[in-house]
Write a structure and sequence with these properties.
Length: about 180
């Protein structure tokens, strides 16, 4: 059964290491017959959440920027994939801002169930991505139909393209193919 998959790349660098993980995940998912759309946050204007909570009543944000269209794509997806570089052992600010701005989803009739996290970092320690996983899990916990279905981490990659040949690319491809 074909799924509608929405991939959000938070990499500030086109072709960055986490962006490449996303592309491999997408390649696997498309080969499996799924419909996949990708958005790169670097190409959009997304302001910080103001904490006004108007969206909890209206299911719309009061801020007029690109976040509303991204949130709508999230709402109608069966699967959401987040790709982020790891900065200071957590997800990058661009992704955190997007998660904050997705607050209108809480009271909506969202479709997504499976959430995936792809991440890359210069640090190669076993727990390098734990902060990002914990942060995303906090967001997922607010959606009773959703679950963290899988993660892929590429450690030891800094410069654009350094991920080439890393086993995490194969893992991302396989995870996408089996989504």
């Amino acid at each position: 059964m074909s799924k509608k998959i929405f991939v959000i790349s938070a990499s500030p660098r086109k072709g960055g290491n986490s962006d490449r993980l996303a592309d491999e995940w997408i390649r696997g998912a498309r080969e499996a017959g799924h419909h996949v759309e990708k958005v790169s946050l670097r190409d959009h204007t997304i302001q910080f959440c103001r904490g006004c909570l108007s969206c909890t009543k209206t299911q719309r944000c009061v801020i007029a920027d690109d976040a509303a269209a991204i949130v709508e794509q999230m709402r109608t997806a069966d699967v959401i994939v987040f790709a982020t570089p790891i900065y200071y052992y957590g997800m990058c600010g661009q992704l955190k801002t997007m998660l904050d701005r997705s607050n209108p989803l809480y009271a909506s009739d969202y479709r997504f169930h499976d959430i995936y996290l792809l991440s890359a970092a210069a640090e190669d320690g076993r727990h390098t991505a734990d902060g990002a996983v914990t942060g995303l899990q906090g967001w997922i916990d607010c959606f009773e139909k959703a679950r963290l279905a899988g993660t892929v981490f590429a450690g030891g990659v800094t410069s654009v393209g350094e991920i080439q040949g890393h086993d995490a690319l194969r893992q991302a491809y396989e995870m996408g193919k089996n989504a």
